Every structure is written in structure tokens, then in C-alpha cells.
TrEMBL record:
Alphabetically ordered keywords of this record: 4Fe-4S, DNA damage, DNA repair, DNA-binding, Endonuclease, Glycosidase, Hydrolase, Iron, Iron-sulfur, Lyase, Metal-binding, Nuclease
Annotated signal peptide: none
Keyword Iron part of the UniProt annotation: yes
Protein name (record): Endonuclease III
Gene3D superfamilies cross-referenced by the UniProt entry: Helix-hairpin-Helix base-excision DNA repair enzymes (C-terminal) (1.10.1670.10), Hypothetical protein, domain 2 (1.10.340.30)
Cofactor: [4Fe-4S] cluster
Domain of life according to the entry: Archaea
Single GO MF descriptor: class I DNA-(apurinic or apyrimidinic site) endonuclease activity
CDD domains: ENDO3c (cd00056)
Family: Belongs to the Nth/MutY family.
PANTHER family: A/G-SPECIFIC ADENINE GLYCOSYLASE/ENDONUCLEASE III, ENDONUCLEASE III
Organism: Halopelagius inordinatus
Underlying gene: nth
Residues binding [4Fe-4S] cluster: C194, C201, C204, C210
Domain HhH-GPD, first and last residues per copy: 44-192
Amino acid sequence: MGTRLDSRETQVLEVLDRLYEEYPDTTISLNFSNRLELLIAVMLSAQCTDERVNKETEHLFEKYETVEDYADADVDELSEDIGSITYHNSKADYVVSSARTIRDEHGGEVPDTMDELTELKGVGRKTANVVLQHGHDIVEGIVVDTHVQRLSRRLGITEETAPEKIETDLMPLVPEDDWQQLTHLFISHGRATCTARNPDCAECVLEGICPSSKLDGDVDLASGEAWS
């Protein structure tokens, strides 16, 4: 029986407790060795799997090592280098443009503020949050990717649909010390069990408190549509 707990606050805490136990070692799955590589990897990961990004950056990070390498890169050549990445043409342009801004306006160092990061071409709040958290150890928000978006709605934690509104809604509910890990926990659970199209509710550690459970519910709150 999937029934949400009495308040959103208690729902969040119970969800976190169960997911911490289920995924004790979860963390970011992108491969990187410095802040620049982290920024590039996160930019490439938009609407693309981390597995695919890691495969491409394995050779990309050998060819391009510095901010100057990216700033001086030919956009068409870089686009070919990341050819299997979704929207590789646009992302190549974003990377070169951002590298030039970092070189010319930030002394070659990846910025450490939300405002400066989101001024980079192709960098939104989600990307900036990841770079701040894993590159600068600064946690000032919650990274809302497709998994966080789906699970937070499916679990009845939020009714918002836009990522930035979901983040704003979640921040007062989630203990600040858990802001970073919530994202990793939701990603791990979203990949392993609570998938977009066919979640395995029967094996889900959250089934008993999930108002979207297919075992006794008719509607997926993530989409607002009836289960097929």
C-alpha cells in the first residue's frame, strides 16, 4: 500500500533514510580529475547519459588539457570529437565560448560563484550547482536533473514541474546537509528501480510510502498520467 506520510517534511526524511541505507556509497558518476574537466563533463551530460559522456571524455581529456586548448579549439573539430554526444554541435560551441570567457575574464580558473558560472554560455543552474558542489565544495542548492524531477513528483514531495521551481520547493524541506546527496540518491534509485517508463514498484524500498505505486495506484504523479 503506497501512502505518502502526513507531511512533505516527514516524507522527505523517510525517503532519505531508506535511500541512504539502500545506496550507502552513491556519488557523482561522471569521470573528471579537475574543475575544468568537471565543467566540460557536466555540460556534455545534458540530455545524455553519464556512461556515454565518460566514454567520450576518456579521449577528449587527453586531446584537450587546458582552458587554452578549448578556447583555441575549432568548433567543428571539437564537435566531431564529441560526435556521439546529443546536441554535439551546440555543446561544442558552448564549450569553446565558455573556455574563452574563463580564459579572458577569470584568469583561466573555473569560477566559484553561481552568478559567474551561469554567465558562461550553455551553463544553467543545474550545471553550476554540480560544479560548485564537486569542484569547489560549495553547496548552495539542489541539483535537479530528470531523476530528481521525476522522483520528487512521483513520491508526492512536490507538485512543481520546472527544475528551478522544484529546487526552490525542495530546499526548505530537505536538511541542508543532505542537499548534495539527495541528488545522488535519487539518481541511483531512478536508474536501479524507479525508472521513467516501467518502475519496479514490487522491489522498491519506497513502495509503502509512494503515492504513485503501481501496485495500488492508478496515476503516475511524475507525469500526471494513468499507468499503462
